[in-house]
Amino acid sequence: MSTDDRRWFTSKLDWWIAAILIIVPIIEVTVLISSLRNGDREGLYAGLVGCGIVAAIYGLLIVPVRYGIGDEDLLVRFGVVRQHIRFDSIVAMYPTRSPLSSAALSLDRLAITTGRGPVHLTLISPVDREEFISLLTSRAKLRWDGSRWVPSRTDSVTDNGGTEWT
């Protein structure tokens, strides 16, 4: 499936995370400009390294953070990293406010578990949460059991590497 056939959802952004994402580059650029004005070579190098690190982190891991629902899988994209989660590998999905590091720019998150394995939990925070849940539960054939969404299929779910990284 091409990525054009997916329904894309952007990550919700909490105000305090947005503030951090804005303040950090401002601090680095301020150090750089101040060092340039004062002729401080060490400060200039520190500012350049700091700006480079911030730009690398933002470009490699933060921009963009979005989630694409296709016909057979969920694609979680954060920066250059892409995580494919096959619908048949989903064991459960439930709301959470877990602060664990994840492809989410908000603490208003959904946890998606895929069973056993080194990467069995993915935390996401789609802006259009209700629409996202509706589409994902429909395509992945998930039903609400009172505390979480679980597969509604009757066959057993086995985890044989349901998460694929590219």
Plain-language structure description:
This protein is of the alpha+beta class and 166 residues long. The protein folds into 2 domains: 14-62; 67-165, no CATH class. It contains 3 helices and 10 strands; from the N terminus they run E-H-H-E-E-E-E-E-E-H-E-E-E. It has a 5-stranded antiparallel sheet with strand order 1-2-3-4-10. The protein has a 3-stranded antiparallel sheet with strand order 5-6-7, with no helix packed on it. The radius of gyration is 20 Å and the shape is elongated. The model has no long low-confidence stretch (mean pLDDT 89).
Poorly predicted tracts of residues: none
Trace the largest sheet across and list its strands: 1-2-3-4-10
Any idea what the shape is?
A: elongated
Q: Indicate the percent of residues in helices.
A: 25-40%
Q: Can you write the helix and strand succession as a string? A: EHHEEEEEEHEEE
Strand content: 25-35%
Helix-strand blueprint:
Layout: E1 7-10, H1 15-38, H2 41-62, E2 65-69, E3 73-78, E4 81-86, E5 92-96, E6 109-113, E7 121-124, H3 129-140, E8 142-144, E9 149-151, E10 163-165
Antiparallel strand pairs: 1-2, 2-3, 3-4, 4-10, 5-6, 6-7, 8-9
Helix pairs in contact: 1-2
Summarize the structure.
The protein has 166 residues and is an alpha+beta fold. The protein folds into two domains: 14-62; 67-165, no CATH class. The protein is 35% helix and 27% strand.
Q: Which keywords apply here?
A:
2 domains; alpha+beta; elongated; 3 helices; single chain; 166 residues
